[in-house]
Amino acid sequence: MQSSVRALKKPRLDDEVRFLRSWIEKPLHMGAVMPSGRLLARTMAQYVDVDSDAPVVELGPGTGAITSALVERGIDQKRLVLVEYNPGFCALLRDRYPQAKVVQGDAYRLRDTLWNVLSTPASAVVSGLPLVTKPMFTRLRLIRDAFTALAPGAPFVQFTYSVVPPIPKSLHGVSTEASERIWMNLPPARVWVYRKD
Q1: Where are the beta strands (DSSP E) in 40-165?
Q2: Which Gene3D superfamilies match (predicted)?
Q3: What is the mean pLDDT of residues 98-110?
Q4: Per the CB 3.0–4.6 Å rule, which of 79, 149, 173, 185 could disulfide with 37?
Q5: Cβ(128)–Cβ(59) under 8 Å?
Q6: Is 80 exceeded by the pLDDT of residue 82?
Q7: Nearest to 58 by CA among 87, 35, 79, 34
Q8: pTM of the prediction?
Q9: CB 12: neighbour CB atoms within 10 A?
Q10: Is the separation of the CB atoms in 101 and 120 below 8 Å?
């Protein structure tokens, strides 16, 4: 029994070591020192429509903590388009999610990165990017590009550890909602959802 518990904990520990190593090498490219907690990942996944057959774009999946929550929610791997900058994480994601489309590219240049990837508008963009470390111009360009890739009314889902929203709530023609603060995540986080009206 103890060996099976250790076997379940080992991938999580390995992922934490990978994350920490990548963060040490390039701290501003990483959204966190550790992968997203399960409760945070599940909260993000709940905003994605499982009944749609349109693609779901995940930005900065890292080792796949949020990806796993999407799959557990019932999102078919074939719908997933995983945009990851780190080539080591891309290899890991291809191994873990062989039916997903893994795109090695810069999510902050989303229009260029996705220009020949999506054949239909996405039903959601789920982001694990470190938005608060970027200038506001970069954040606004990202959400503009995400809305270009999304079907009308589809969500752009973003988490943050910050107490303020990562993208202003006052964007013209954009509605926002936020989850309760997720205290069981380390550090505590909140999920913000943006939809173009």
Answers
A1: 56-59, 80-84, 101-104, 124-127, 155-160
A2: Vaccinia Virus protein VP39
A3: 97
A4: 185
A5: yes
A6: yes
A7: 79
A8: 0.82
A9: 14
A10: no
Say how far apart CA 127 and CA 162 lie, in whole Å. 15
Cβ atoms within 10 Å, residue 81: 20
Identity at 26, one-letter amino acid code: K
What distance in Å separates the CA atoms of residue 45 and residue 109, rounded to the nearest whole number? Answer: 23
Give residues with Cβ within 8 angstroms of 143, minimum separation 6: 156, 167, 171, 174, 194
Q: What is the tens place of the pLDDT at every residue in 18-52?
A: 545 554 555 544 444 445 689 999 999 999 999 99
Token pair 């701290």: residue: 27
Number of neighbouring beta carbons within 10 Å of residue 49: 14
User: Averaged over 100-126, what is the pLDDT?
Assistant: 96
153: left (phi over 0), alpha (psi -120 to 50) or beta: left
Alpha carbon distance 58, 191 (integer Å): 14
> Shortest CA distance to 43 belongs to which of 152, 142, 160?
160
Quote the tokens at residue 58: 């995940």
Report the DSSP pairing between strands 56-59 and 80-84.
Answer: parallel
CA distances in angstroms from 18 to 26, 38, 166, listed in the order given? 12, 17, 25
Q: What is the DSSP letter of 83?
A: E
Cβ 194 vs Cβ 176: under 8 Å: yes
Closest C-alpha to 155, from 176, 184, 135: 176
Neighbours of 121 (CB within 10 A): 14
